[in-house]
Structure formats: structure tokens, C-alpha cells
Amino acid sequence: MSSPLITGAVVSEETAASAGAPTRPFHVPHPTPPRGKRKRKGEGLVALAYLGPGLAGFTFFILVPLLGSLVISLFVWPLFGTPTFVGIANYQKLFADPTFYTVLLNTVVFAFVYTALNLALALAVSLWLNTRVKGAGFWRVIFFLPAITPMVANALVWRLMLSDDGIVNSALASIGITGPSWLSDSRFALASVIVMSVWQSFGYNVIVLSAGIAGIPKELLEASRMDGTNAWQRTRSIILPMISPALFFTMTMTMIGAFQVFVQPQILTQGGPGESTNTFVLYLYRNGFVFDRLGYASALAWMLFIIVMLITALQFAGQKRWVNYEK
Fold first, then answer.
1. pLDDT at 36 over 90
2. What percentage of the chain reaches a pLDDT higher than 90?
3. In angstroms, rounded to a whole number, what is the distance separating the alpha carbons of residues 208 and 242?
4. Domain coordinates of the chain in residue numbers?
5. How far apart are CA 124 and CA 67, in angstroms?
6. Do the beta carbons of residue 249 and residue 323 sit within 8 Å?
7. What CATH number labels 90-321?
8. 98-129 and 244-258 are packed helices; what angle lies between their axes, rounded to 10 degrees?
């Protein structure tokens, strides 16, 4: 039989396509999917296994209590008894409570003064420790020790030191000065709490800022010395811009911690005299576990959360103007 190409017969497009299509023998298996897809799927399961415990902890110990406190804030919820739904009445009561504004003002004053003193002292000590001082490592340990010592123990020691017949007033009496009642006089009580808090925690910021200063290239500082700059010019124009990320981190974390101050006023002054050292978290604790008002305490907790979030957001918005992330 002669070929269509020889005889001039016309071959349809379907016939030509089927004739030209390669055929696979029946014993050849179908191609398997790429191993990359299976590998990525396996990696996802491994990642989920590693993340699972952390996600479970976050869910059960942070997310669920957070949502639970929001629900409780809508009730009059005693420690023992039947809760009563009141809607936003706790929040309305909060804004009509004069003590709320007092403790808010105390907390704001404490937070800003404490943060400023903490960072100033930590920066000064960090600069000193990076001037090739002998025993710099030893001094870092000494300054860091209060930060890892139990805060309750530190507060009890400071309460003894600042009592009317404590070591501070005894030292002042030895030079002819009559010391005030540091913890029972409203003019000095909050300042005493701030001083004790700064002493307790500035060592942590010393470690962070010292690490930032140690990371500045030595060649840069040597070149500035050769150009005739003094110590203040090098600090202002080189060191501070180079450690600005570390400064921003310490400022943010210190401010967040300051708004949650509780142990220091509770141990040193119990919030007194009057309401002069009563802080937000101390007032929250008393409402929840002393006055048996868990709903109102939960509303206070959510107000504190909102305030801290707003201040942190302002810090992040403002850091673009002075934080330098370029090396």
C-alpha cells in the first residue's frame, strides 16, 4: 500500500497529531511529583512540631487569660459568688473614679522619671566601663547583681535603710543633718521608690549599652581622635548615633516595665502615705484581691494595656527620627 505522501492523499490534522504524538510503553510508570514538594511538606510538619509547644503555651497562658479578662471586665465578678453582667459599667465607673486619675498620674510620673534616670545612669556607667578601665568585667558583674537579686529582698533592705532610724538618717545625723521620713512623708516617698527602682534595674541596661558601645569600630573612634575631637564630640556625633538601636530597645523595655511597677511601692510604702505612691498595678491588685472586685480590676488591666500600647506605638513612630540602623 502506497504512502499518502507519495500518492498525494490529504491527511487530516487530527490524524497527523495522533501520528506525531509520542507513545509511552505500557510498562513505563507515570512520572512522580517533584521531591521538592514532598520535602517542603515534611519541613512544614517539622516546623509545626517545633512551634507547637510554644503556640500551645501562648494560647493557654496568654491568649485565653487575655480574652477571659476582657469577659470578666463586663461583669461584677466577686471571688466567691455569682457574677452579674453589667456591660461597660466597670469602664464608666473607672472614668468617674478620682483614685484612678491619682494612680495614673503617679504611674506616669514614676515611669518617665525612672526611665530617664535609669538610662542616664546606665549610659554613663557604660561609657566609663568602655574607657579601658581596669576590672571592667568585675564592675559589670557588680552593677548587674541587683538586677538578678529578688526584688522583694532588695525592697526589704531598702525599707530598713530608709526608715526613720535607718542607716541613711544615721549617716546624715553623723554630719549634723536631720534626715526626713523618707517613706512616710509624701514629699519624699515617691522619690524614694524611684531611687530604689533605678538601683535595682539599671545594671541590665548597662550590659546592653556596653555591648552596643563595644561593637563600635575602634578605627572610627581613632580616626575621630586624630581629627582633634574631644570626648563629648565623639560621644555626641559617633557613639550615641551608633548605639541608638540599643538605646531605643532599652528605653522601650524600661518604659513598659515602669508602667507595671508593683513590688517596690507594695513593700516600701504600701502605696502611702495616702495615695502618694499608689501605682496602677498596685491599685489593680487591691481591687481584685483585697476589695473582691475582679470585674473592676479587669477593666483597670485593659486600660493599662491600652495605655502601654499607645506609648509604645508613639515610641516606635518617633524612633525613625533618631534611631540609626545603618552601620
1. no
2. 75
3. 13
4. 37-72, 90-321
5. 42
6. no
7. 1.10.3720.10
8. 150
Q: What is the pLDDT of residue 9?
A: 43
pLDDT at 149: 93
> Which residues are within 8 A (CB) of 72 and not within 5 positions of it... i.e. 6 or more apart?
83, 294, 295, 298
Predicted TM-score of the model (pTM): 0.83
What would the 3-class secondary structure string for the chain be?
Answer: CCCHHHHCCCCCHHHHHHHHCCCCCCCCCCCCCCHHHHHHHHHHHHHHHHHHHHHHHHHHHHHHHHHHHHHHCCEECCCCCCCEECCCHHHHHHHCCHHHHHHHHHHHHHHHHHHHHHHHHHHHHHHHHCCCCCCHHHHHHHHHHHHHCCHHHHHHHHHHHCCCCCHHHHHHHHCCCCCCCCCCCCCCHHHHHHHHHHHHHHHHHHHHHHHHHHCCCHHHHHHHHHCCCCHHHHHHHHHHHHCHHHHHHHHHHHHHHHCCCCHHHHHHCCCCCCCCCCCHHHHHHHHHHCCCCHHHHHHHHHHHHHHHHHHHHHHHHHHHHCCCCCC
User: Is residue 33's pLDDT more than 60?
Assistant: no
Q: What is the mean pLDDT of the segment spanning 146-168?
A: 95
The whole-angstrom separation of Cα 323 and Cα 327 is 12
